[in-house]
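Subject: for your reference before the review

Hello V.,

The reviewers asked for a structural picture of the protein, and I figured it would be easier to keep everything in one thread rather than splitting it across files. Below is the amino acid sequence we used in the manuscript, unchanged from the supplementary table.
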Amino acid sequence: MKPVYFDYAATTPVDPRVVDAMLPFLKDVCGNPSSVHSFGRAAKSAVRDAREEIAKLIDAEAEHIFFTSGGSESDALLLKGYFFVQQDAGKRAKFVTSTIEHHAVLRTCETLQSRGAEIVYVSADKEGAVSPAAVTANLDGGAALVSVMTANNEIGTIEPIQEIAAAAHMRGAFFHTDAVQAVGHIPLSVRDMGIDALSLSGHKLYAPKGIGALYVHPKVKILPLIEGGEQERGMRAGTENVPAIVGLGCAAKLANEEMAAEGKRIRALGEKLAHGIQLLQGAYINGKDPASESRLPGNVNFGIAGIASDTMLIRLDLAGFAVSAGSACSAGSIAPSHVLMAIGCTKARAGESIRVSLGRFTKEKDIDVFLSVLREIVQDRAVK
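And here is what came back from the structure prediction:
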């Protein structure tokens, strides 16, 4: 059997249409966007067009989009950049975030705390939802920045970010969201949702790895991490990665055009998968019901009582299925998932859980075969 990819939350395959859009900028259009000759102008125009497509996808102004190397850099640029501004003003920076954030946010916050920032962590409920009221309770009206992810990378919970943003603004704080898992998969509007800053990554929406973007409203003042040239209006020095930027722009355009139908199809596949899993002895689903509109389409985090996640991963890999045991960025760690532990799972349950994430190229027949393999694994456990 041809291997089946069920790990879209870790990284998506590059859409062939994205590859086609990138190829001319890998072969023929070799100019530096800062150059004034025709080759440079062609590259600059391509970067501008991509920026506009990304702005359309999140309902932002194009001049407020800054290209980065990915979601982690975008998070660091926003959080550290804000910290530097507060530090220069002689103020102690305050951040409010959640216990289930991606490590790109959590570890940056740890670093900033070691340098004098005040960090407040808000807990999520058993389904991974962060309460706007809990955010409000930890803001005192002083300058602060709230950072809560749009959708969780492990259990797929979609946070009430519009309400959290409103809670932050009510207390005079800015609101940032790591939307890496959400952009291109669910509708987002930085205008309507009150988002002051947003991080996104290309390789989560069928663009190549190594490219991302940060949206920042001009009222949020940050300082750059990388200095040198005046690229990205001085916010991120270094010659732009034109082919990857073009790829991200193409992926954003495709998402705008296909998101609604694609999301409906993938959600239906996820529901079918979850239903089949729940029929297995000892099975459980972590987080919200996969049929819920408050969970990312195609995200199914589950476990089978008594079967360790590493055992399950090996059995599934041998059967031709690529899945994961939580965040790809923490792969290889022997520690249980910080997300599952934060929502109240036992260490044993966290050690049994795996994440299946479906996407654009998933077929219904793949679900059927996967469930058949799972049934065999469960039966083998029963025999032993």
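For the response letter, the relevant points are probably these. The chain has twelve helices and twelve strands. The longest helix spans residues 242-278.

Happy to draft the paragraph if you're swamped.

O.
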